[in-house]
Amino acid sequence: MRVFIAHNVYQQRGGEDAVVDGECELLTKNGHDTYIFLCNNDELQTIRNRVEAGLNTVWSRKSVYKIGIDLNCFRPKLVHVHNFFPLITPSVYDACIEAGVPVVQTLHNYRILCPGALLMRDGHVCERCIHSSPYHAVLYKCYRDSRLGSFAVARMVDYHRRRSTWNHKVDRFIALTEFAKSKFVEAGIEPEKIAVKPNFVTDPFPDALPGGKRKGALFVGRLSVEKGIVTLAWAWRRLDYPLTVAGDGPESGWLDGVSSISRLGQVGSRRIGTLMATSAFLVMPSEWYEGFPMVLVESFAHGLPVIVSRLGSMAEIVEDGVTGLHFEPGDAEDLAEKAQWMIDHPRQCREMGENARQVYLEKYTPEKNYQMLMRIYKEAIDARKSTRA
After folding, report:
1. Which of 26, 142, 328, 379 could form a disulfide with 116 if both were Cys (CB 3.0 to 4.6 A apart)?
2. Residue 42 and residue 290: Cα distance in Å, rounded?
3. Which pLDDT value is given to residue 389?
4. 3-class secondary-structure state, position 363
5. Edge-to-edge strand order for the sheet containing 103-107?
């Protein structure tokens, strides 16, 4: 199969980029020809380029032209879109329709429903745009704290919602969890168009998990409000137990003065793997719904149990008392209590890690993911054929 992959890269590399790389490698290893059409937000350095991107957020003639040329040259069996915002734009679907190629779209976040993409406002979950006008985002400056920027994105969401673009021009969506699927269905996307496929990682220990004593807690990610950094900081002021923080971000100052926290800043994937293989448990106190964080599947692959907010996809992925523990979102005292329980019950903590490793082997390996991806591709191709008929 020849697969055309379209992706808009952000200026700061994130989990979506890792997913695209992983799926491309997976397809290639299984004998498929892939072509990657990339746009990069580094193109938005000048005011002129940013204004142009804002005006073209709804639909881009340039994007249709460039993608159309590449489609005609590569002649794929299917197009898989990951992130179209802001440079590729939903016009990618029209280029595919003109070329007669079926489309799969992975929903890494909630951008097609929410201009801010996170279903979050002022540090709290917000679902207002699911059921009402996305122009509420302009009032609250949901996109980059800018009314002008929020208007541009809200206009894109509203335009395509009114024209049922998502139901008429995409053959299959991939949601990362059942929870995420439920939110898109609430917003009006036909449920039969949405397949659920999680993210995956390559097994770091194809033979067996390494032995040795595990100690200390671990946080991996961006140090920002939506990631629950403030809650994490207050929780650890109540604990006398080492926490290693791998990551950086605007809220890093909240961790200052907490003696039991060691900050590493940004570190490479190999170091992250070492930390996961030697830590007792991971903490993920996010206060937005998340998609399917790569850090979770990586933790499971390393046999590392996770304490997560009882919220959205995190509560679906981590089974309370089996592969980790849940705590009330934003409740530092509850997080501290759950962490203390892990500290006081090392045997049960280790068993949860073993359970997490087993769940990884059952659900999140490349081999399992490839089977799911091929099934979704076939459904998209069959759906396009039936539409033509």
Report:
1. 142
2. 25
3. 62
4. helix
5. 33-40, 2-9, 78-81, 103-107, 172-175, 194-196
Mean pLDDT across the chain, nearest whole number? 95
Six-digit token string for 298: 């990586």
For 106-124, the pLDDT digits (tens) are 999 999 999 999 999 988 8
Residue with tokens 């081999």, as numbered in its chain: 367
Rounded to 5 degrees, what are φ and ψ at 265?
70, -160
The DSSP call for residue 36 is E
Q: What is the pLDDT of residues 303-335, one digit of tens each?
A: 999 999 999 999 999 999 999 999 999 999 999
Contact 235, 333 (CB under 8 A): yes
Token output for 317:
């992925």
Helix axes 346-363, 332-344, angle to 10 degrees: 100
CA separation (Å) from 241 to 7, 260, 341, 344? 41, 6, 12, 11
Residues 355 and 250 grouped into a single domain? yes
Q: Model confidence over 204-237: pLDDT tens digits?
A: 999 888 888 999 999 999 999 999 999 999 999 9
Give the tokens for residue 151. 């208007």
Strands 103-107 and 120-121, sheet pairing: unpaired
Q: Are residues 151 and 227 in the same domain?
A: no
Does residue 379 sit in the same domain as residue 257? no
Distance CA 177, CA 187 (A): 16
Q: The domain containing residue 120 runs over which residues?
A: 2-200+366-388
168 domain-assigned: yes
pTM for this structure? 0.93
